[in-house]
Amino acid sequence: MANSSTRAARLAPPRGQRLFSISNLIILAGFFILMAWSYVGTEFSLRGLLGGESAAQIWTYVKKLYPPDLSQEFLLKTGYWTLETFAMSFLGTILAVLIALALVFFSSRNLMFAGLLFEMERSRPWVRLLRTGLYLGAKSTLNLLRTVPHIVWALILVFAVGLGPFPGMLALGIHTGGVLGRLFGEVVENVEIQPIEALQATGASRLQILFYGILPQVLPDFVAYTLYRWEVNIREAVILGYVGAGGLGQQIQIAISLFLEHRLLTLLLAIYLIVTVVDYLSASLRNRLL
Amino acid sequence: MRSFAPSAPASLALPARRSSYFPIVFSSLFLLTFLGSYKLAEVQPLLLFEAEGRRNILKFVAGMFPPDLSWNFLNLLGRPVLETIQISIMGTIVAVAIGFPLGLLATSSLTFKGILNERELAGSRPRAMLRKGSYLVARAVLSLFRTIPEFVWAFMFVRAVGLGPFPGVLAIGIAYAGMLGKVYSEILEHVNPGPQEALQATGASKLTIILYGLLPQALPNLVSYTLYRWECAVRASAILGFVGAGGIGQQLEISMRMFDFSQVITLVAILFVMVAGVDVLSARARRAILDRQRV
Q: What is the pTM for the complete model shown?
């Protein structure tokens, strides 16, 4: 082994690529320091985990979970909560797309004031100012929506409109709207320039350029990102129930708090099912539409 | 959030138009799902404009200002902020430790498919079955790990091993092991098989093939994706405190429950700075790693 590794070292490209160069050693040392710092800080105990106390505790808990509660009454309820969670993720994603579409074109530099579309424009200061203002407004709104975690949005909205899946759906939509707005924005700012140039040369208006030069280019990416965020949202919809926003999450909180472990296992199986179904739907739609 | 969603190749050729029921079926199913969901989610847009809701929102916004920047409060936050970072790092390490071996097992080109295993498994059916079996088991475990959200894992680990950052680490470790393992196996399945075949022709063992034929090619992508997941882990571990798994989320929950919105806005601002800092750091590291590969 030692022999073959020296041979490999001789074959390796020379400049700056050696395994034990000084910069690599510094990175490695830094990494180990970070690791040790985290190990101590998180009270992590490898011994406890591998055959010690924590392992025993986890095992006891797992044993308590089995068997799942499969009484007909509870299964029916679980089915209802599962559908509720699905509905939250579905409507939340639709709301997110609406928010993102409403803001994305204002938050794209190349549509508001920079680049090809504005090269020839006579600079009228107040128009430029208005455009830049709109751009900054849209951009910072999206940032705000995205920065506040969805669970905090859910708490705020539960506070505003009461318990139930409705605030959960709003929270998903608002947070994801910010995320999609940014992802969409990156797509719009990176469109191919030739179709736009060609349209502009024919004298098309900016609105026409938007519809015929930009939208056809960006729509496939928009759809792909939306489906991808839907997959994320079904998982987050499960979490939001924790703060009173309905669905499976709320029931999981109840089951864990009241030590109803058999029901918990049923609920976990329901999560597994609905997440897998959404992943599958999203993947097949992506294949079908794109 | 940066995403790894596959971006669609912009195909310029228009497909030949063929008549299909797909648009009709799709739009009617979409409409049905929409209506059903609308009913199930108890959507009541009017609630947003009711006097009480408006008052609550106003109270909330008014309560946010001025943000609580008192020394006492900020002093309280130092440790949870560091703890959040520590949870994310340790959680990612645990995730790699679990996800990498499972990812190798879940790589079909390593376990039972393709040229590497053709000769070896040709004669013995039971061995082939065993290999395929371990591949399927690894995939099933990975999918179980990643479909249950880390938040729910954390909730259960808090119940099992008690409060503190330790259950947070375990939760991130398990949930992210599922995601890392899946993506690792996808990366490993898509490397150029040439070097592996060449090594095999020299009579190299499987371990040697993995170390010299597979990992050098895949490593930049593996590391880059792991760093991306670390970014997500920072965001996630900030939330885990809600169920008592340490970090800044615990303080966030306390402040929310006490309706102290001036503290909430400070916390959200800190969260923003933290996440943005980690994003920049990780993006630079990833670019450096991937650029190096191209030299």
A: 0.83
A245 interface with B at CB cutoff 8 Å = no
Question: What are B122-132's pLDDT values in tens digits?
Answer: 777 888 888 88
| Domain carrying residue A241 | 72-289
Dihedral sign from CA coordinates of A201, A203, A204, A206: positive
The angle, 0 to 180 degrees and rounded to 10, between the axes of the packed helices B71-105 and B248-257 is 130
* Residue among B79, B87, B145, B152 with most chain A CBs within 10 A, to mutate: B152
Confirm whether A27 is domain-assigned.
Answer: no
Closest to A188 (Cα-Cα) out of A225, A228, A137: A225
The least confident of B102-111, B124-133, B149-158, B221-230 is B124-133
Which comes out higher in pLDDT, residue B164 or B176?
Answer: B176
**Under a CB-based contact definition with an 8 Å cutoff, are residues A222 and A184 in contact?**
yes
Q: How confident is the model at residue B110 (pLDDT cuts 50, 70, 90)?
A: confident
CATH topology for B68-294? MetI-like fold (1.10.3720)
Could you tell me the pLDDT band of residue B183, with boundaries at 50, 70 and 90?
A: very high
pLDDT tens for each residue of A142-175 = 988 988 888 888 888 888 888 889 999 999 999 9
Residue A48: inside a domain: no
Q: Three-class SS of residue B2?
A: coil
* Total count of domains within chain A: 1
Please check whether residue A273 lies inside any domain of the structure: yes
Residues of B in contact with A140 (CB under 8 A): none
ipTM, two decimals, is 0.81
Which of A188, A178, A120 has the alpha carbon at shortest distance from A146?
A: A178
Q: Is residue A97, in this structure, part of any structural domain at all?
A: yes
Q: What are the domain boundaries of chain B? A: 68-294
Q: Do A42 and B87 touch (CB under 8 A)?
A: yes
The CATH number that applies at residue A169 is 1.10.3720.10
Between CA B249 and CA B267 the distance in angstroms is 9
Output the six-digit token pair for A242: 């924790």
